[in-house]
Amino acid sequence: MNQKNICSIICCYYPDDKIIKNQLEILTRISDVFIFDNSSSLILEDFINYDSVVIKKSISNLGTLKAYNEIISANSNYEYYWLWDQDTVITYEIAKEFIEASFKCFKESNNIVATTFLDKKNKINPLNKDKILIKASTTFLMKSKVESYVPLVFDENLFMDYGDWDFAYRLTAIGGYIQQIETPKYNHSFGDTNLTWLGKFNISSQIRIYMQGLNTIYLIRKNGLFNFLSIILIMRFFYFPVKCIFLGIARVNVYKFFLGIFDGLRGVESFMFMTNKMK
């Protein structure tokens, strides 16, 4: 089923090699695959036996969004781009079914410009079901349709987190439609786990929580206050600390989030912050 007009992009930073190899075994049967290694421990020689795979290794961690942009910009000849996280677990049957459903959506509606798996991090506007904020990972983009609305570029001022929501907001605000395909399902293999009185919950690292605070302020400034994206972000002002307190998660996480909010108000941006931190 290999479609030479599909470019799958895996962005990784110290990944589990077994999961990456599993992704390659599946995705190379469907598409060409580009791995963007964000200055991690990936050993290139481990992947030379896979056909249709190109590995770009960065000398520094550029973040997820800039990695996507660099691969898309350097390989603009593809008609479709399929974005992936390093920890996504799928099967060939799931990937094949999703692609077939996506092609059907694109054919049936000129307004559908991208498709995405059902994910709890996707947010659908209850007042307008056509407005959806998506998680970039596993989203399938038809380049020509996307670019009839907005350039296929993610905001690189955001190191990670919320850049996919920002892209989806800008795309759907002017009429693009992203179809959430509810079957089949996929899984993530791991995350930062916190043990609470209700059991184990995944929560981001403290530095990532800090950057989420920075990105919250940046996006509200960029897109304005009265829109679906900003409302979702503002809700985290209340939801995140309550969640941490209720679950007994370390208070320092709440501190880091609001420190990010404060620094964001002072003009600090997450990409700039990480670039300076890695110097």
What does this structure look like?
By secondary structure, the chain is an alpha/beta fold. It has two domains: 6-188, Spore Coat Polysaccharide Biosynthesis Protein SpsA, Chain A (Alpha-Beta Complex); 193-277, no CATH class. 41% of the residues lie in helices and 19% in strands. The strands form four sheets. A seven-stranded mixed β-sheet has the order 3-2-1-4-9-6-10, sandwiched between helices. The protein has a two-stranded antiparallel ribbon with strand order 5-11. A hairpin with a 7-residue loop joins strand 7 and strand 8 (132-133). Helix 7 packs antiparallel against helix 8 (251-265). It is globular and about 50 Å long.
CATH architecture of the largest domain: Alpha-Beta Complex
CATH topology descriptor of the largest domain: Spore Coat Polysaccharide Biosynthesis Protein SpsA, Chain A
Q: Which term fits the overall shape? A: globular
CATH secondary-structure class of the largest domain: Alpha Beta
Spatially, the strands of the biggest sheet line up as: 3-2-1-4-9-6-10
Count of strand segments: 13
Judged by helices, strands and strand pairing, the structural class is alpha/beta
Major beta sheet summary:
7 strands, mixed
Helix content: 40-55%
Tally of structural domains: 2
Please compute the radius of gyration using only Cα atoms: 19 Å
Quick structural gist:
With 279 residues, the chain is of the alpha/beta class.
Which features does this protein show?
279 residues, Spore Coat Polysaccharide Biosynthesis Protein SpsA, Chain A, alpha/beta
Topology:
Layout: E1 6-12, H1 17-27, E2 32-37, E3 53-57, H2 64-74, E4 80-85, E5 88-89, H3 92-108, E6 112-117, E7 123-124, E8 132-133, E9 140-142, H4 143-146, H5 163-173, E10 177-181, E11 187-188, E12 193-196, E13 199-202, H6 206-223, H7 228-247, H8 251-265, H9 270-277
Parallel strand pairs: 1-2, 1-4, 2-3, 6-10
Antiparallel strand pairs: 4-9, 5-11, 6-9, 7-8, 12-13
